[in-house]
Fold:
Amino acid sequence: MGRGRNGIHAEEDLINQAGGIEKIDALFTERAPCDNKCDGLLRDTDVDVSYAFPWNHPEESIRLVLGCLGSHDPRTRRVGLWGLAVIDFGGAKYFGLVADAASDPDPRVRADVMSTLGSVFGVGDPSRARAILIAGACDPAPEVRSSAVAALGSLRDESVTDLLVACADDTDRSVRFSAAWSLAHRPGSPVRAALERLAADEEGDVRDAARRVRSVPVTPV
Structure:
């Protein structure tokens, strides 16, 4: 399961953004269905979660979610991704659609793909999820790299650790911040050296994250 920017699991982060599980339930059940792609609902807002799917009607919900994925608007495609992760909690049926979105032209969509694959949804195809996350850590867009690096924190093999150590020197602050958290509990002198560098980073939140991570016990692989 992936971590958010403050060490919060992705699912918890979504719930908090939306105002709590009670609010989500009320919005999902009381709102009328949107016009097939939700474009009208999202045109003048930056919301990151869907509040228009009739979850008590699964067939209608999946129709609307798939419509969102096909939208020209990246904000609406992001809603579609989130909807798929809710409908197909473990990625057993629609994993391929989320994985394909890793090549979306919009970096915000690609970043959401990384977060989704770092959650329980990624168990739908662990090897493909791992490959996409590793590629995402080298994406040109820093928000994608940051999301991928955060999601890679749950993978403990040595090659991932080596990649996270390299990401500790990324030019973008958010990537270094994610790298600090994802290096938690990992053994090895390269990890210790990377955290030492991050603990002296020019950005305060990166320094604080690295110092907190350095204080937690290391878990043998």
